[in-house]
Prior knowledge:
The complex is a heterodimer. By secondary structure, chain A is of the alpha+beta class. Chain A has 4 domains: 5-44, no CATH class; 50-120 and 374-468, no CATH class; 122-221, no CATH class; 226-359, no CATH class. Chain A is built from 8 helices and 32 strands. Chain B has 2 domains: 1-134, no CATH class; 137-303, no CATH class. Chain B is built from 9 helices and 13 strands. Chain B has helices at 33-47, 50-56, 58-61, 75-88, 99-114, 191-204, 218-221, 241-260, 297-300, and strands at 6-9, 16-20, 23-30, 119-124, 127-132, 137-143, 151-158, 165-169, 183-188, 213-217, 231-236, 266-271, 274-279. At the A-B interface, β3 of A face α2 of B.
Amino acid sequence: MPTDATAAADDKIRCDACPVMCYIKPGMAGACDRYANHNGELVRVDPHIVLERTVSHGGRLVPFQAGGDWDGKIVHEPSMFVTAIGAGTTYPDYKPAPFIVSSEIDGVDMVTVVTEGIFSYCGVKVKIDTDRYLGPETATVRVQGEAVGHVTTGEYGSQMLSLGGVHHLTGGSKKEGRVTCDALMDLSNCKPVELTIDGGATVVVQAGYPPIVNGVAEERMRVGCGSATIGMFAKQWHGKVDEVVVVDDHITGVLSEHQAGKLLDIPDTGIKMKGRRSTPGRYFQVAEPGTGWGGTMISDPLSVLGPFDPKTARPGTTMLMVSTTGEHAAYYELDAALKPIEKPMPADLRLSVERIQENCEPALCTVLFMGGAGGSLRAGVTDNPVRLTRSVKEALTRVTSGGAPVYVWPGGGITFMVDVTRLPAGAFGYVPTPALVAPIEFTLRLSDYAALGGHMDYVRPLSSLKDNTEIRQVPSPQFPPGQRA
Amino acid sequence: MSRVPQIGWLADGRRLHLQDGPIDLIVEACGSEANMRAAYDAAARRFTGLLDELCDELPMLRRAAEPTRCLLQGVVARRMHAAVAPFAVDHFITPMAAVAGSVAEEILGAMLGAARLARAYVNNGGDIALHLGDGEQFSVGLMDRPDPHGLLRTMVIDADDPSRGVATSGRHGRSFSLGIADAVTVLARTASQADAAATIIANAVDLPGHPAIVRCPAHDLQPDSDLGARLVTRGVGELSASEIEDALEAGAACARRLLAAGLIDGAALRLHGETVVVAAKAIETPGSETAFNKDAMESALHA
C-alpha cells in the first residue's frame, strides 16, 4: 500500500495513495476519510487495530504487517490480537458480526468475534483520588449545566462518581442525552472533562491524570486517616517532637492522646482540639470539609485548636501539624503565654513529612467504562444469544474490549467493566441515539464456537484480514464513527 | 503506480465491495447464476481505472459548472455536469456535487449492459443507483444508527415508480455542506440527479448568521476543496424548536420547488432529531418507532 506523502508548505501533506492526490492539513483526513495527516505523517484511520499481547502497560500497538509482508504462518507468541476497533457494526443488515476471525493460540483453534457494540445501557464509574470535598452523596454531577450523573460514595482516599447510564442518555432531554454522550465518550477516550457538582466542587477529570479540584491539581492520595497516620509514624516522631496533629477531614489524630502515643509514654501536652472526640486522640469534624488541609476547609491549622491547658502545657513545647498527605505541614513552639508560634521545621521532622508524602501514592482519576451487551449484539456472535452469555459465565469465552481485559459482572447478561486507559486511543465512538459505540471481542475455542451456534460460515482466517488491516489507528480527525450521512 | 482497486466480497459472500481512493461501492445483483457473474465481472472491469478517468479532469470538475456548456470529456464527468447544470443558474455548484451518484450510475449501467438482472443496486456511500425489473421493489430505510431501533422510516420504491436514484447529503458526510441539515435524503430519476439535489437541499437547510453555528472556509480544512473559501458548517450548537422548524422549512421550500420542477421525486430532511418530508408519494414510518416521529409539523409539510 503506498503511504508515501510529500510534505508541502504550511504542514499540509500530499497524499499519493490514489490519483486524487489530496492535500491534507494536520489533524484532517483526505477526501476518502481513510488517510489522514497525523502530526505531519500520513496514516490510515479506518483500519482494524491488531494488538500484540504484551506485558507493557496498556499494551503496545504494533503494525499488522510490520517487517514486510504477512508470511501466512499461524500466529505464535507474541500473539496478534484482532480488536473490534474499526470493525464497524452492520446489523441488522446481516446478522453475523463484521469479523469473525480464527487464529490458533496454544495449539487450540481460537475464534475471536469482533464487533463494535452500541451501548445504550452504559456509563462510566469514576474514582477520583482526593480527600478534598467534591460534594454530598447523591449530588448531581453536571457538564455544561446538564445532569450527567451523581456522586456515589467515598472509597479509601477517593471520591466516587457514577456518570451516564440509560436515564441520562435517553431518559432526559435531548440536550442532556447529547451532553452525557459526549462526556462519556471523552472520558472513555481519556480526554479531560470538567464536571461541576451541585453544592460542591468543580473537578476536571481525565483518566490516568491527577484530578484538578477547583483549579488545583491534586498530587497525592493520603496514606491513611489522621489517626492511622499517627499509628504508622508515632515511633518515628518519638523523641523528636512533643506533639503531632495530623489534620484530616475524616479523623484527625493527636499523638499525645492517641493509643500509639500512650504506648510510647508520650506525656500530655495540654492540647485542646475542636471537633467531636471519638476515642482518645481521634477527632471527627474538626473543620468543615473543603479543599484545604487534609480535605478540610482550613488554611490555618491552628484554627482546629483551642487554647492549651495552662495546668499541663509548658512553654517551649514543640508541635508538628501535618495533613494526611504531608502536602501541608508546619512546626510550632509554645511561647511563654502558651501560644503556638510557627518556627522553621527541624530537618528530622521535615524528613518525617517527606516520608508521609512518599507513602501517599500519586492521585489519579480512573475511569471504568461499564456497559451491557444486548441481545442483538450477542446475536451477531451466535444464533442462540443466551448460549454466549452462558459460555462467558463458564469462562469458556473470554471477553475483551479493544484487547483490554474486562470484568464481567456476575448475574444475567454480559455487563462488563473495562479500564479505559488500557484501550487504544480513540476506541470509543457514538451514535446520535445517543449511545456509545465500544469495541467488544469474544474469544473462544473454535469447537466451542460451533457448539454454541456460532456463524461458522463466516469464520475467516486471521491472515485474510491483512488486505484491509492497516498500520495503526489514530482518532478519526473529523467525524465520530457511526455518523456518516 | 502500484495502486489497484480493492475488489472483494463482503463477509456475506453475496455483495461485492469495490474501493478505490475515495470511492467505496457496495454492489448487489439478483438474477440467474450466470447473469450475476456477468454483472459482477462487468462492475469490476468498469470500476478499474474509473478513478483515474475522473482525476484526469479533476481541476475542471472542481470548478463551478456552467449552466449551458460542458467542456468535460469523460462519460462520468459529463453525467456529473448534466446532473448539476439545472442548479447552476441560481447556485454555486460544481460537478463534484454529483460525483458519488454518477459513479454509482456508471457501474450499474455497466452491469445492466452485460447481464439480465431482476434487481440490482450500486451503493456509493449512501448514494444509490437502482435497477428494478417488473414487479420488483426496493425498500430504503432511513436510520439514525445502525441497529433495529435506529430505523426512522422506510421508503418503498416499486418498479412502477419513476425513482431509480437515492442520495443523502448533510453536514456529517464526507463532503462539506453549506447548510446545517444532519441529513437530506432525496429520491430522483437517477442517482446523479438525486446526489446533486440532495446537496442543494441540504445547503438550503440553514439559519444564516445564527451564532450557534460554527462555519469555516472550506479550503482551511481541505486545501483543494471545490468549495474554496465558502463557509462550510463545522458545528451546530443548541437550536430552539422554532429555529429548527425555520431551518427545515427553508430546506423544504427548496425541495418543493425541485419537486414541482420534476428534478426530484421526494425528500426527507432531518435536523436535530426533527424530520420533514416533501414527497408526492407517502414515505412510511414504522409503527414501532412513533417516538421519533411525534412532531405535528411534518404531516403539515407533506407536499
